[in-house]
Amino acid sequence: MTDTTQAASPGAPKRRSIWKSLEIDPRLLGMIGAFILIALIFNMLTGGRFLTPRNIFNLTIQTVSVAIMATGMVFIIVTRHIDLSVGALLATCSAVMAMMQTDWLLGLGFELGHPALPWIAIGAGLVVGTLIGAFQGYLAGYQGIPAFIVTLGGLLVWRNVAWYLTNGQTIGPLDETYVAFGGIQGTLGTTWSWVVGLIAVAAALLALMSARRNKVAHGFHVKPLWAEGVVAGLIAIGILGFVWILTSYEIPQRVLERDFEAAGRVLPEGYTASYGLPFSVLVLIAVAVVMTVIATRTRLGRYIFAAGGNPDAAELSGINIRFLTVKVFAILGALCAISAVVASARLANHTNDIGTLDELRVIAAAVIGGTALSGGIGTIYGAILGALIMQSLQSGMAMMGVDAPFQNIVVGGVLVLAVWIDIQYRKWTGEGK
Amino acid sequence: MTTPLVELKNISIAFGGIQAVDDVSIDLMPGEVVGLLGHNGAGKSTLIKILSGAYRMDSGEIRINGEKVEINSTRDARRHNIETIYQTLALADNLDAASNLFLGRELVNALGLVDDAKMEAETRKIMARLNPNFKKITEPVSALSGGQRQSVAIARAVYFNAKILIMDEPTAALGVHETQMVADLIKELKAQGLGIFLISHDTREMLDLCDRVSVMKNGQLVGTERVEDVTEDDILSMIILGKNPRDKAVA
Questions:
Q1: pTM above 0.95, yes or no
Q2: Which of A346, A401, B147, B226 is the least crowded, having the fewest Cβ atoms under 10 Å away?
């Protein structure tokens, strides 16, 4: 929903404050503000270790898996459902993909290291995740079993299906190509990171421009050009700043030595290289873009939000709510499979406890990101920021040496606090429940 | 005699053991307003939901312009230019007026993506006609007053060229001024040749707006009368006693 105010009425240009002219979602600003505050506080408390390129890199790759699933959880919660099975579903997908790579396919004309192996495994994982998600959606949508119960059952079922498939063993090492999706094992390097960064900036500017042109074409109010420029500038600084930080994280000399040795060469004197953007982050960005387009620019997204706001109205408008439920659960299932790739690749192994308690982190990320459990309200970027805030708290406290129990106590408290602030904000602005 | 716009013939529907609508037949001519009256639970809304596609009848027949039609979903009803304004307004509170107006029939661009700007422009156009004071096009409809919300619901029916309009308690949640606005609009739409089924509890309002009224009780049709032939008292006794006083007079 665009945030144009009454001043959209033609011929009545009121005087607008600078903030109003910028037309940035205040909730987005609030979340970014909270994140920056958390980062600065931890940076102070850890003596400057929190805001180093290295830690930001780690923080980013640790967030990816939960953030990917959180974007799907937004759709689930917006349609007034819940999914408690995401961690377990991730484990089942991970188990299937690991077994495909290391066991099941090996007798069938594939040997370890076959170039097609990781891709077949990922494809199978996606199919499994999507089908399981769709099945749970069918039970909730067509059979009327509350999603809470369906996915509570699913939590037990899929966790133990994963266990059964792998006999509870750690499966690995996984294929090298596959492992490149994990984070530090697969990065773009300096040059390509900048290329991707510049392409992203160009795409963002184009999107802004075409949106503006469309509004002008219909004779709508548009924000002043300077405000558009400021927003564009902030986006560009954000993207390029992120690339700059990640490309400042240099690969340690001993790792370079090892790599060169493996290639049969000697490390030249004074040679340095940087990690740059991890592939896993590119996957998250792709997911975020696709999910945002679905949420805001497609009929499917419109129906998801309509069904969450007033299921009866949606039904009377000819929207098939039951099938919609299957679709949103299938989407989350597919995202669980993508998260499973990232999570198991990061460990280079499938482990029996992979994804444990992820359901809670994912729900918390969506909720901290402003998704209302009463349905109808939520954003994709919010969920991703929510995941980032949760992960920052966790790893910041770990860096400070806070005991594990206290870490969890704080994270739990923050979850409740964040929702309370959101409710107060909505009351204050008179928006929704 | 011209063909009726809508003929509902011998319509019946039961929920569990309850016969909600029992062998009811009514019709509607172009440019006519037919009122449905009765107690809560008399079956008015159920009957009308069969025509709007929300319920499927057990038996009976629906004819539109003399042709038998199958209406199994709200989409079917819309194909026959039947639009419904529900008692509960059927708006998604979290979406803006434009999204609600086009809900289920979004305008899309060449890429198949929802074209919000176009829908907003169309909404502005229709609102300028129906309710010129309406400005909150891009705010969630939860921020609107009852009358403004009703405007959105009515705009939806008008925009998609309804030929047959069903209004279920359109003024129940409205103030005096807004009620008058809806009444004026009904008269205007009627003048354009639309057929309107109107459900209301307000007998006086019904006598003012309708050409004919049909009274239902316990799922059955008590009778249909031209408004100039009956008094408010006649109507009330039909509603309460379930008997048509004129039947006695004739007998």
A1: no
A2: A401
